[in-house]
Protein backbone atom coordinates (compact mmCIF):
# COMPACT_ATOMS: atom_id res chain seq x y z
CA UNK A 1 0.00 0.00 0.00
CA UNK A 2 1.33 3.41 -0.95
CA UNK A 3 1.90 5.90 1.87
CA UNK A 4 -0.22 9.05 1.81
CA UNK A 5 1.45 12.36 1.07
CA UNK A 6 0.65 13.37 4.66
CA UNK A 7 2.74 10.41 5.87
CA UNK A 8 5.54 11.17 3.44
CA UNK A 9 5.72 14.83 4.50
CA UNK A 10 5.58 14.07 8.24
CA UNK A 11 8.24 11.39 7.82
CA UNK A 12 10.39 13.92 5.97
CA UNK A 13 9.91 16.44 8.80
CA UNK A 14 11.07 13.78 11.27
CA UNK A 15 14.09 12.97 9.11
CA UNK A 16 14.94 16.68 8.76
CA UNK A 17 14.85 17.07 12.55
CA UNK A 18 17.88 14.74 12.66
CA UNK A 19 19.86 17.43 10.76
CA UNK A 20 19.51 19.89 13.63
CA UNK A 21 22.63 20.86 15.55
CA UNK A 22 20.57 21.74 18.64
CA UNK A 23 21.63 19.93 21.81
CA UNK A 24 18.23 20.33 23.53
CA UNK A 25 15.65 19.49 20.84
CA UNK A 26 15.62 18.57 17.19
CA UNK A 27 12.66 19.82 15.15
CA UNK A 28 11.90 19.52 11.44
CA UNK A 29 9.36 21.21 9.18
CA UNK A 30 8.07 20.78 5.63
CA UNK A 31 5.99 23.36 3.74
CA UNK A 32 3.80 21.99 0.96
CA UNK A 33 1.04 22.87 -1.47
CA UNK A 34 -0.90 20.44 -3.66
CA UNK A 35 1.37 17.44 -2.92
CA UNK A 36 4.49 19.47 -3.76
CA UNK A 37 7.23 20.56 -1.38
CA UNK A 38 7.71 24.32 -1.22
CA UNK A 39 10.41 24.45 1.45
CA UNK A 40 12.01 22.53 4.31
CA UNK A 41 13.62 23.57 7.58
CA UNK A 42 15.00 22.41 10.88
CA UNK A 43 15.86 24.29 14.04
CA UNK A 44 19.26 25.80 14.60
CA UNK A 45 21.30 29.01 14.49
CA UNK A 46 21.36 31.02 11.25
CA UNK A 47 23.59 29.57 8.54
CA UNK A 48 27.30 30.29 8.88
CA UNK A 49 27.12 31.25 12.59
CA UNK A 50 27.31 28.40 15.12
CA UNK A 51 26.73 24.68 15.37
CA UNK A 52 25.63 24.30 18.98
CA UNK A 53 26.46 20.59 19.21
CA UNK A 54 30.03 21.38 18.15
CA UNK A 55 30.59 24.65 20.03
CA UNK A 56 28.70 23.76 23.25
CA UNK A 57 28.35 19.95 23.07
CA UNK A 58 27.37 19.36 26.69
CA UNK A 59 25.00 22.14 27.66
CA UNK A 60 24.00 23.67 24.34
CA UNK A 61 24.03 27.34 23.45
CA UNK A 62 23.35 30.21 25.86
CA UNK A 63 19.74 30.47 27.07
CA UNK A 64 17.51 33.54 26.97
CA UNK A 65 15.46 34.86 29.93
CA UNK A 66 12.75 32.22 29.29
CA UNK A 67 15.24 29.35 29.14
CA UNK A 68 15.04 29.01 25.38
CA UNK A 69 17.90 28.96 22.92
CA UNK A 70 19.17 32.47 22.35
CA UNK A 71 20.63 31.71 18.90
CA UNK A 72 18.37 29.34 17.00
CA UNK A 73 15.65 29.85 14.48
CA UNK A 74 12.79 27.40 14.84
CA UNK A 75 12.19 24.85 12.08
CA UNK A 76 9.02 26.65 10.96
CA UNK A 77 10.90 29.96 10.78
CA UNK A 78 13.67 28.42 8.70
CA UNK A 79 11.20 26.83 6.27
CA UNK A 80 9.19 30.05 5.90
CA UNK A 81 12.26 32.29 5.59
CA UNK A 82 13.84 30.08 2.94
CA UNK A 83 10.59 29.99 0.97
CA UNK A 84 10.17 33.78 1.12
CA UNK A 85 13.84 34.35 0.27
CA UNK A 86 13.30 32.30 -2.88
CA UNK A 87 10.01 33.91 -3.88
CA UNK A 88 7.71 31.01 -3.08
CA UNK A 89 4.02 31.71 -2.57
CA UNK A 90 2.89 30.50 0.87
CA UNK A 91 -0.78 31.47 0.66
CA UNK A 92 -2.80 28.28 1.16
CA UNK A 93 0.23 26.14 2.06
CA UNK A 94 0.29 23.27 4.55
CA UNK A 95 3.01 22.94 7.20
CA UNK A 96 4.13 19.62 8.68
CA UNK A 97 6.24 19.96 11.81
CA UNK A 98 7.56 17.55 14.40
CA UNK A 99 6.69 19.89 17.30
CA UNK A 100 3.56 22.04 17.50
CA UNK A 101 4.30 25.71 16.83
CA UNK A 102 5.11 28.06 19.69
CA UNK A 103 3.11 31.30 19.82
CA UNK A 104 5.70 33.44 17.94
CA UNK A 105 5.91 30.83 15.17
CA UNK A 106 2.10 30.61 15.07
CA UNK A 107 1.92 34.36 14.43
CA UNK A 108 4.44 33.97 11.59
CA UNK A 109 2.54 30.99 10.14
CA UNK A 110 -0.73 32.95 10.21
CA UNK A 111 0.86 36.05 8.69
CA UNK A 112 2.47 33.99 5.89
CA UNK A 113 -0.95 32.75 4.77
CA UNK A 114 -0.37 29.09 5.65
CA UNK A 115 -3.81 27.52 6.11
CA UNK A 116 -3.12 24.11 7.65
CA UNK A 117 -0.61 22.78 10.18
CA UNK A 118 0.00 19.16 11.18
CA UNK A 119 2.29 18.48 14.14
CA UNK A 120 3.69 15.28 15.60
CA UNK A 121 4.35 16.21 19.25
CA UNK A 122 3.06 18.90 21.61
CA UNK A 123 5.20 21.98 22.35
CA UNK A 124 3.19 22.47 25.58
CA UNK A 125 4.10 18.98 26.80
CA UNK A 126 7.75 19.53 25.84
CA UNK A 127 7.91 22.89 27.68
CA UNK A 128 5.61 21.94 30.57
CA UNK A 129 2.96 24.52 29.62
CA UNK A 130 -0.76 24.33 30.34
CA UNK A 131 -1.79 24.52 26.68
CA UNK A 132 -0.45 24.70 23.16
CA UNK A 133 -0.76 28.48 22.81
CA UNK A 134 0.42 28.43 19.20
CA UNK A 135 -2.13 25.81 18.19
CA UNK A 136 -4.88 27.67 20.08
CA UNK A 137 -3.91 30.91 18.30
CA UNK A 138 -3.92 29.30 14.87
CA UNK A 139 -7.25 27.55 15.34
CA UNK A 140 -8.81 30.72 16.77
CA UNK A 141 -7.84 32.68 13.67
CA UNK A 142 -8.89 30.10 11.10
CA UNK A 143 -5.72 28.10 10.49
CA UNK A 144 -6.48 24.41 10.94
CA UNK A 145 -3.81 23.14 13.34
CA UNK A 146 -4.00 19.58 14.59
CA UNK A 147 -1.96 16.67 15.85
CA UNK A 148 -0.97 14.31 13.05
CA UNK A 149 -2.80 11.04 13.51
CA UNK A 150 -0.84 8.83 11.13
Summarize the structure.
The chain has helices at 5-17, 52-55, 75-85, 103-112, 123-127, 133-140; strands spanning 28-33, 36-42, 94-99, 116-121, 144-147. It has 150 residues and is α/β, with parallel strands linked by helices. A five-stranded mixed beta sheet has the order 2-1-3-4-5, with helices on both faces.
Overview of this protein structure:
- This protein is of the alpha/beta class and 150 residues long.
- A five-stranded mixed sheet has the order 2-1-3-4-5, sandwiched between helices.
- The longest helix has 13 residues, at 5-17.
- The protein is built from six helices and five strands.
- The two termini are 14 Å apart.
- The mean pLDDT is 92.
- The chain has helices at 5-17, 52-55, 75-85, 103-112, 123-127, 133-140; strands spanning 28-33, 36-42, 94-99, 116-121, 144-147.
What topology does this entry show?
Elements: H1 5-17, E1 28-33, E2 36-42, H2 52-55, H3 75-85, E3 94-99, H4 103-112, E4 116-121, H5 123-127, H6 133-140, E5 144-147
Parallel strand pairs: 3-4, 4-5
Antiparallel strand pairs: 1-2, 1-3
Helix pairs in contact: 4-6
Report the helical percentage.
25-40%
Strand content: 15-25%
Tell me the total number of β-strands.
5
Question: How can the largest sheet be summarized?
Answer: 5 strands, mixed
- The Cα radius of gyration reads 15 Å
- Termini Cα gap: 14 Å
Shape: globular
Our count of helices gives: 6
Give the mean pLDDT. Answer: 92
Strand order of the largest sheet: 2-1-3-4-5
SSE string, helices as H and strands as E:
HEEHHEHEHHE
Weakly predicted, low-confidence segments: none
- Structural class comes to alpha/beta
Amino acid sequence: MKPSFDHIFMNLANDLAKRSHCVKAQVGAVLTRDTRIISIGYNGPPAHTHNCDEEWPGEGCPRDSKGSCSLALHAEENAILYAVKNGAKLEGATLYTTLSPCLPCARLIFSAGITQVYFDKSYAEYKGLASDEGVDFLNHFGVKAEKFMG
